[in-house]
Amino acid sequence: MEKALVLLAFTIAATEGFISHHSLVSRNLNVRSLSADPDEKTGVFADDVQQEAREVLQKVGWASPIDDGEMTSEDPFVKQIDAAILADYGFGLDDLLNPAKVVNLERDLFNLRIELASLTGNDDLDVAGLSTEECDGGGGGEEAEKIRAKISKKETDLAIERRSVFRDWLKNIFVGQAVISLGVSYIMATNPSVLFGGFSWFYSYNMDISIQVLGYWFWWLFIVPSLRSRRPSGAEKRALDIAFLGTPLISIIAPVATKDTGLIWLANFLVVSGAYGFAFLVDNDDDETQDKSNQPEWLKFIYKSLDFGSGRERGARK
Question: What is this structure's pTM?
Answer without folding.
Answer: 0.61
